[in-house]
């Protein structure tokens, strides 16, 4: 949920996608300006925050970088509940038949 | 290769007249028979590992298959798995393009082995420097590779339908035939209502652990005792449960041929670091010099604490307790594999095995160091069926806080708790004390007080070391481990200079491991004391209701003096107990 203060906005952002797609690399680049050629697998989900100035407003992102392994799929709702935005990441070089989202099980809710 | 199989005391049962070395403990010490083995020069080498009576295996194994002299590589390769010309399929390019051990580690991924194409683990010394934690080694091998067959210690997890789940070396999928063979052996015996414990084949021992629907197998020529290998399989099973919980069994109920490998994706580093803790493992960081650390927790069933002054540990415990009262199940502050403080709510208590598996999981997963994280984790000894949720945050390079809860939506609460805890720890200097203790190290045998009048010395007051420094402690004491049975904790001395080499440390680890197994052997034990001399060490073990002491001395040490020294070690540990043990964190009632 995005909450608006005076001119500051809190926004929860979640990254979803299969393992090895590049979710952690994207987040690390965005939050810390880093890029590692070999990024270790994320366990569970890693939490980051990053504040950006957009025009007059300040946006504080609370970012959930979720693990892409199959064993964590059923937990995805726990992390994306209440998110203002989701980034779905897939690897264009390995996705079969143009289905970018084999991992995404849309929950009942 | 190990040369630690030179134990020379197959029959340690001569009463010994010199037991009155320390009158105060004569009853305990005297209640068991001490025997001194012949001296090293006259040592005869018993068949087998020598530590156990010759009939041990027959007694312990319900089924024993002995195929003397046949190399395991030929015998265990299943029918489906080559053994013929395929045996030479080793990839010739394996040694190419290997990074130097000092390269960034990441480049060392993909099974590089430190430069040599020699079948490593002849003493996997250099090899794991840069890749022990970086995922699977040698993924290109399979059971047809010569190199694969020469590995000294294999571990496999498979399903009871024969599907591979995990293999320490090689690609699981390429090992399908081999797994099927293991499964066939196990189920053949199970079908007749019996249970396969181990097979001996020449130098190799094949140990089985059945946890339907999961099978675990170790194939080893390290001469470790059966009980030790079985315990290692139990820990590997526990590590798997920590990641997945036992509810993974349901997948097999629905589909017996279920392929479980995708569920463990990305966890190779977790298993390989656990396996290294079974013998010894190497940290290349932060010091450039390789530092060998072995983890006795893998066989002692106990955990160890970072030495800290009583008030420092109290300060840490107080803030953790504060947090635990607000709905945290366990709050655990650790530095590497050592506990700074641990607090549990009400009656919950944390088993030492769970602590070992949890700290291994956290330390071997780089992901936890990058940011704070919130992950499902199962503590197999606490409840193997359910996930708890772990908030993990590294306060510095080695020190991490773990908050465990049953509620999946308490991340923000735990984050607040962590901020509170961190603030207090920094303000009260606990963190800097932790870092200092890490640098100072633990007990040194050279500091063992010579006279009982010196007892009250504190760990935290630096002192002049005795004139004997450089040659170990008094009376040739080189090393000791003391386990408090009531507390489920152990303390282990630092390595003194006579055992500064990694090969000597590895020998000591294996010797302790066998000493432990022989002391706790159900067939001939349990024993109360044991004195043993071989060409590497004099080993003395003493078990009472309250503690277990394992000590290693110079091989030429005098027995009466060694016994006396052990009594002093026990007294010293008791004098320092407030600094080296954690008291009253939670009821440890296992």
How helix-rich are the residues of chain B, as a percent range?
A: 25-40%
Instruction: Report the strand count of chain A.
Output: 5
Task: Name the structural class of chain B.
Answer: alpha+beta
Strand order of the largest sheet of chain B: 11-12-13-9-10-8-15-14-18-17-16
Give Rg of chain B in angstroms. 24 Å
Number of helices of chain A: 2
Per the principal axes of the C-alpha atoms, what is the gross shape of chain A?
Answer: globular
CATH superfamily of chain A: P-loop containing nucleotide triphosphate hydrolases
Task: Characterize the structure shown.
The complex is a heterodimer of chains A (109) and B (590). Helices cover 14% and strands 32% of the residues of chain A. The longest helix of chain A has 10 residues, at 23-32. Chain A contains two helices and five strands. In chain A, strands 1, 2, 3, 4 and 5 form a five-stranded mixed sheet that branches. Chain A has a single domain (7-88), classed as P-loop containing nucleotide triphosphate hydrolases (Rossmann fold). The two termini of chain A are 16 Å apart. Chain A is globular and about 40 Å long. With 109 residues, chain A is α/β, with parallel strands linked by helices. Chain B has 590 residues and is an alpha+beta fold. Among the domains of chain B are: 308-440, 2-Layer Sandwich (Beta-Lactamase), CATH 3.30.450.30; 442-580, Beta-Lactamase, CATH 3.30.450. In chain B, 31% of the residues lie in helices and 17% in strands. Chain B has helices spanning 26-30, 56-60, 72-76, 127-131, 146-150, 176-191, 226-244, 249-254, 268-279, 297-300, 310-324, 352-364, 367-370, 411-427, 430-440, 502-519, 559-575, 577-580, and strands at residues 153-159, 164-167, 198-201, 204-211, 214-220, 281-283, 291-293, 303-305, 330-335, 338-344, 372-377, 388-394, 399-405, 477-484, 489-492, 529-533, 538-543, 547-553. Chain B has an eleven-stranded mixed sheet, sandwiched between helices. A five-stranded antiparallel sheet of chain B has the order 2-1-5-4-3, sandwiched between helices. Chain B has a two-stranded antiparallel ribbon with strand order 6-7. In chain B, strand 16 and strand 17 (538-543) form a beta hairpin. The longest helix of chain B is centred in the middle third of the chain and has 19 residues, at 226-244. The radius of gyration of chain B is 24 Å and the shape is globular. The model of chain B is unreliable at 1-134, 281-292, 453-470 and 586-590 (pLDDT under 50). Classes of the chains: A alpha/beta (109), B alpha+beta (590). Chain A: Keywords: GTP-binding, Nucleotide-binding. Chain A: GO terms for molecular function: GTP binding; GTPase activity. Chain B: Plays an important role in membrane trafficking through the secretory apparatus.
